[in-house]
Amino acid sequence: MLIGDRVMLREVSWGDLASRQEWFADPEVTRYLGWLDGVPVPYLQDDTPGAVEWTVALRETGEPVGIAQLGKLDVVGGQASFGIVIGRKDLWGQGVGSAVIRLVLAYAFQVAGLNRVWLTVETRHHLAVRLYEREGFHPEGVLRQARQTQDGLQDVSVMGILRQEWEARQNHGA
After folding, report:
1. Given pLDDT bands bounded at 50, 70 and 90, which one contains residue 86?
2. How many domains does the chain have?
3. Residue 156, number of CB atoms within 10 A of its CB
4. Do the beta carbons of residue 37 and residue 24 sit within 8 Å?
5. Distance (Å, rounded) from C-alpha 101 to C-alpha 54?
6. Which residue blocks in the chain are alpha helix, DSSP H?
7. Phi and psi of 138, rounded to 5°?
8. SS3 159
C-alpha cells in the first residue's frame, strides 16, 4: 500500500468491483480511454507480466475513487507505462490525479528502480495533458489517428518522465 496526503493506493479487492462497474458505465469517465460501446479496445489492455495495478482510495475514508497502473514493465530497459482513471467525477480538478501521479512516480523510481515512466493520452484531452506536464511528463511524440474511440480515430500523444527529471523536481520542491 502506498499512502499519500490525500489518497492511498491499495491492492485491488472484490469490494472495488461495484465502483469500477459504475465508473466504466459512465460515458464521461470512459470518453478518453479508447472504449467503444462500453467495451475497452484491446489497444489499452495490458496483460504484461509484472504489471502493477492499484485501487485509488481516499485516505480519510478508504472509499475507492479510481485506478492507477504501471504496466508494460520492461525491467531490462528500466521503464513502464502509466495509466490512471479517476472514476469519481466530483473529484476531477481537485488534485487527486496529481496526488496519485506523485505516489506512483515515487514508487516507480525509488522502489521499482525504473529509469523512465511513459504514458499515452489523447491529444484532445487537454486537461489530462496539462496535468501530466505539471507533474513533469514531457511530450515525446504524436501517434496520428492511433486510437479508435466512440468519437472516431484520435491522435495520441506519448509523454514520458525520466528518473533524473523526477529527482530534480524533488530537489527543487516541484
Report:
1. very high
2. 1
3. 21
4. no
5. 12
6. 17-24, 27-30, 96-106, 126-134, 163-171
7. -115, 145
8. strand
Is residue 137 within 8 Å of 159, Cβ to Cβ? yes
What angle is formed at CA 140 by the lines to CA 139 and CA 145, rounded to 5 degrees?
Answer: 95
Q: What distance in Å separates the CA atoms of residue 22 and residue 141, rounded to the nearest whole number?
A: 33
Q: Which of 114, 41, 105 is nearest to 75 (CA)?
A: 114
**CATH number of the domain that 85 lies in?**
3.40.630.30
Q: How far apart are CA 55 and CA 68, in angstroms?
A: 7
Hey, what's the cell of 111?
A: 522502489
The rounded distance, in Å, linking the Cα atoms of 49 and 37 is 28
166: pLDDT strictly greater than 90? yes
Single-letter residue type at 43: Y
> What residue numbers bound the domain in which 90 lies?
2-171
Threshold 0.85, pTM exceeds = yes
Q: What does the pLDDT look like over 48-65, one tens digit per residue?
A: 566 889 999 999 999 999
